Description:
By secondary structure, this protein is of the alpha+beta class. 44% of the residues lie in helices and 18% in strands. The chain contains ten helices and nine strands. Strands 1, 2, 3, 4, 5, 6, 7, 8 and 9 form a nine-stranded mixed beta sheet that branches. Strand 5, helix 3 (120-138) and strand 6 (143-148) form a beta-alpha-beta unit. The longest helix is centred in the C-terminal third of the chain and has 20 residues, at 268-287.
Amino acid sequence: PFVFGIGEKYEIDIACDLKSKMEVYQLMYRLYNNPEVGYATEDSSQMWYSLFNALADTTTIVVRDVLSKKLVATLTMVFDSVLGLPFEESYPEQMAMLRSKNRRCAEIISLGFEDTVRGSNEILIQLFRQAYLVARCIYFASDFLIKIKPIHALFYERNLLFEVIGEEVTCAKINNKPMILYRLNLEKAQAEAQNAIDKNIKLNNLELYKSFVKDQHCKELVGALQKKACCSEMTRSDLEYLFMQEKKIFQNANPDILFKIARMYKDEDARSFLQKTAKLFHENYLLA
Length: 288
């Protein structure tokens, strides 16, 4: 993990094991099940995740307190695939438009902080730094997409250069709460940041991406992230536990989608398990 903050208080890493991922799902459930937020309904698993988390390239970034190892913040990226993207249900026209232009999109989901965490702005910057490098240098994404509360819109516009591309809608997955779709054109942000670097121009809203662009040229940093990302896909036992035992997600999924997800996996055991699971539930799915 990489350390940062005053006194190197925090470490940031990619979640590669079941324990880390479950900590993330539990944190997001606590945050979303808070009565003041009201996104999540009661769930016996007390975890917040979906079929998108079973995709082989879904990447979860975690920030921990160095001393206690407590999870304090997280961000998950989902890349466009056979499942589409989570926002697509609410914004089908926008996704169709992006695909028509051959954009390779990544949606940021499950972005959250422990209520007691300090230095959240710096943590957010580090989360986006890692997300940017993974998206651009490993999965060659062209755009970030995110659904946000209307109250947070100004922050994303001013500080992170996101632009609104969808009107406010109510989202069924989060108990019909209002959301707005925002997009960050990573290629545009990179080009503008590189131009500012070349011409030694100081622009406050580009300083963040100038540092990210410089990071892209650090082979050691990108190489370490790539190794972590390649090790983050779930194992057979992870898939069985999360998606069949804790939640009946595979039982309710389209078997054709499970076959396609299986092809994304490098691990032969996980791939075989997904294929067998798809065959097992194929007849039940047709009857349903």
